[in-house]
Specification:
The chain is α+β, with helices and mostly antiparallel strands and about 425 residues long. The chain has two domains: about 5-170 and about 175-180, 2-Layer Sandwich (Chloramphenicol Acetyltransferase); about 185-420, Chloramphenicol Acetyltransferase (2-Layer Sandwich), CATH 3.30.559.30. Helix content is about 35%, strand content about 25%. Strand 7 (about 130-135) and strand 8 (about 140-150) form a beta hairpin. Helix 6 packs parallel to helix 10 (about 325-340).
């Protein structure tokens, strides 16, 4: 049995204390945490330069806790389960110091992260970050750090990493979650939410409720995660963007829509694109979770590539505009329309372009490859969810699917169909 880690107390203090409802982005993220039964930990292991001290890492943790209000946030729950938040102006957190003894320190750090991922996090009593350092022969060699996705999305995380590296001391940028929630309750915020609900309801009332054909057989295990790497897509997408003037994210979304209808035979296609919402006033660089899944519908069948790109480009404008809404309220709209139509409306088809603003443009030669990473019975996945990432020389698309809705073979065919469509 491993010895208990040494625990270093880290005191912190910051501004912005207060209580209030969750912001729309927080509500959406909290819904995912509840649904997936995980605290959505992000992060991992980082090797540290020789000579790094425990005090230096404790100071980094203190900086993060003091500067960013979401790091100092805990949740409260009403009797009916409705969450609210409290931002603290001061507190204490612990940095764990783990001795590697005779083990590989990197593997020790990885095991710390693995254990944390499996442990539950009590959002009412714990801070949403866990940090440790690993010590080998008296030297600090690695850091292990996980924070909940509830703290921030990918764009906010990039801001956080930049600022912590430079120890920025200027005031934090943008509207913090409590301020966001205040605007969202204002007349202007309520008007926007009502408009988003009308937009969604317009789609919900006309779309066919079943979005996937019934699988010929249900695979076991049920939930599958695959990865597709495509140098061909990384060459084709910039070429298409230059020729058509359509941005690369919209191109990939259109390829996804076109491949879906070709493989499944379902048209129009209904997709939930993840939208950063960073284009809204006061939200560009704020460290918090803002991304929400919008809703779009597009007739994608029987179109040439450039006509498909133009059609998807047109519908994304409204989809992105109305991907900012009160999550619980929108769930009620979906449930009401489904009840009126007499059957559930399937909306579990997602697209998430996670590439950063600086995108790799140099494409390496080589063939595309696909592999199934894991098949499992739990935890569950959405019916279909794809994530797009830049890796050197290629584009990587990760797919998560529920084989009760789409077979693994059809899932792979969708990804390969995107590449084929791009080259048509």
């Amino acid at each position: 049995m491993d010895a208990a880690p040494e625990r270093v107390s880290v005191r912190f203090a910051g501004d912005g204390a207060g209580t209030g409802p969750l912001s729309w982005g927080q509500l959406e993220n909290w819904s995912a945490i509840v649904k997936q039964r995980t605290w959505l930990p992000l992060g991992g292991v980082k090797p540290l330069p020789a000579g790094t001290t425990v005090e230096e890492i404790a100071d980094e943790l203190r900086y993060l806790m003091s500067r960013y209000q979401p790091m100092r946030t805990r949740l409260r729950f009403a009797p009916d389960g409705t969450p609210s938040q409290e931002v603290y102006d001061q507190g204490e957190i612990f940095l764990d110091v783990v001795d590697a003894d005779g083990k590989d320190p990197e593997k020790v750090a990885e095991s710390v992260c693995d254990r944390w991922r499996e442990d539950e996090l009590d959002f009412t009593a714990e801070w949403p970050v866990r940090m440790a350092v690993v010590r080998k022969d008296g030297e600090i060699t690695h850091m292990a750090v996980l924070m909940s996705h509830f703290v921030t999305d990918a764009t906010g995380a990039m801001t956080m990493m930049t600022e912590v590296a430079a120890r920025v001391t200027t005031p934090v940028a943008g509207l913090q979650p409590l301020a966001q929630a205040e605007w969202q309750r204002s007349p202007a915020g309520q008007r926007h939410n009502a408009a988003a609900q009308r937009y969604w309801e317009g789609i919900l009332r006309v779309v066919e409720p079943r979005r996937f054909p019934s699988p010929r057989m249900v695979e076991t295990p049920r939930y599958w995660h695959g990865e597709f790497t495509s140098p061909a897509l990384s060459r084709a997408v910039p070429e298409l963007a230059g020729r058509t003037g359509v941005d690369s994210s919209t191109i990939l979304l259109a390829l996804y829509a076109g491949a879906l209808t070709r493989v499944t035979g379902v048209d129009p296609v209904v997709i939930r694109p993840m939208v950063s919402n960073r284009f809204r006033p006061g939200l560009a660089d704020v460290v918090c979770t803002l991304a929400q899944a919008g809703l779009l519908m597009v007739d994608a069948g029987g179109l040439g590539l450039e006509e498909l790109l133009e059609r998807v480009r047109r519908v994304t404008t409204a989809a992105y505009k109305y991907a900012y809404f009160h999550h619980t309220g929108m769930e009620a709209v979906v449930a009401r329309v489904a009840a009126e139509r007499g059957e559930p409306i399937e909306l579990g088809c997602y697209f998430n372009d996670r590439r950063g603003p600086v995108r790799d443009v140099a494409s390496a030669p080589g063939e595309s490859t696909f592999r199934w990473v894991v098949a499992q019975e739990a935890p569950s996945f959405e019916p279909l969810f794809v994530h797009v990432d830049d890796v050197p020389g290629t584009i990587r698309i990760s797919m998560y699917l529920d084989a009760a809705h789409i077979t693994p073979d059809d899932g792979e065919a969708v990804l390969r169909g995107m590449e084929a469509l791009a080259g048509s």
